[in-house]
Amino acid sequence: MFLPLLALLAVAEGTVTLTDPNRELDALPGISSSFNVIFPPALRRPDGYEHREALFGIPPYGGELAQNVYYAASDLCGDDAVDKTGNYPCIEQDSATGKCKDWQSPFILMVDRGDCTFVHKVRRAQQAGASAVIIADNSCMCDKQDVTEGHGGTCQHNSGQCTCTAEVQCESFFPIMADDGSGGDITIPSLLLHKQDADVIISQLESNTMVQVQLTWNLPAPDDRVEWDLWSNPTEPISENFQKTFRPAVEALGSSQFFTPHFYIYDGIANNCSHSNNCGTLCTNHGRYCAVDPDNNLSVGISGADVVAESLRRLCIWDTVGADGVGSKYWRYLEQFLEECYSPSKPNEPRDFPKTTDWSCATKVMKEVGIDSSMIESCINYSGGITNDVVNSRLKQEIDSKVENGVIIVPSTYVNRIAMRGTINDGSVFNTICAGFLDGTAPEICFQCSTCFDTAGCVHEGYCGGILPPSGSVSGATLVLSLLITIGVMGGGGYVYYRRTQREMRDQVRGILAEYMPLDDGVDGGTQMISKSGNMAQI
Which is a Pfam family this sequence falls into (predicted)? Predict the structure, then answer.
């Protein structure tokens, strides 16, 4: 009964809406795209159009996309095949059917926002052949005060006016295009455009005027150190194996990278968990800091409060041993904790929940990896603890960081403040980190292992797949000598083959001649021979 109260982030149409009206996600770090109109020139703006980039798909960072736009006049929420003839602009009609001709590839498709998820509509557009998707918002962006007090009327928002009516609702936050959990197959970029901006473009398209737009994705400014963050929680299974195996790569990259762990904590106050019910066992600090129950059983097993407690413990461990951005002892703690305190006692059995919530198990692991547990306990108490009805400064810091960075999916990895797309594993994270360095500043391990299939093995061995690493440049004399040896071997082999062929040919001729015996000269002066079978032959 308490789980719905934790829906701080209400996912509707893949949209994340904050329940706290005083917090707005104005600009998400890592959203580095720009959107503008090329034609008609009257719609072009010096600073482009404000928009929200999707948190799924694969943007071509460092590239741009300039193509014609077609308007589907649909939200693509159905499951039927997309009708490519019901489009705007209708530049040319098929004389046989009277319908508009299919969209001419390549194209960017504009669709309406509707009641299905963003992922669903973008997937359908991708299947129809679109190279990118623009989603036209159907709600006005209005002043927070207007929305809070229920005021209607006209809203002024940057590029133009948006009239709020009974049909057109107002919203004070620009929605985030979140992944609904199934967006791994989306490979095209997409964005959400304000209603008042989209309406202008749609008006041009509906009048059969061709509109061409440009999308550009800028790379973050790199340097000789890559900063990266991992957002997770102690019980999510997706990044568990990664956290158990990535330490050697972090140590190999050393000071050229700087890692910061984060933990996804819910704000219980925003969900009324700080009242008398305290949301059961989901929260600490009298309902202030909460986490979802990992086994969906509020009576037994690990509780949400246990998840918060372990999150705080790991934050304090990092604050104690992670000042260098590497934090070897932190990674060793993760390895040992996941093995000793959060693994099944036997294969194919449930996790050992009592050990996970037992402070003594965590203390034992900290001792094994060389962490002073008394310092960690002091850090926990100093930040506010987890039992009293007080603010915990460290947990509050995580909630603030989550909102400011627009983190909505766990686990999530950010490299140079750009959200990493795809599976979180050793290879993908290592390669993304190595790609984030300024040219010429990447450490040697990146050149040795970034293209290796077995990243962990390469980092451990220092080279890829049994191929020894280069020890330096090859001299010209060595190269020439190698070529001469190769040519000599090939030439010798060719000569041997030639002699063998000649010998076999001579043997064949002798065998044929041996079949005949010479006789007297024939009347025509030729020599007659008789074979052993009695047949005559003249040669």
Answer: VSR_TRX
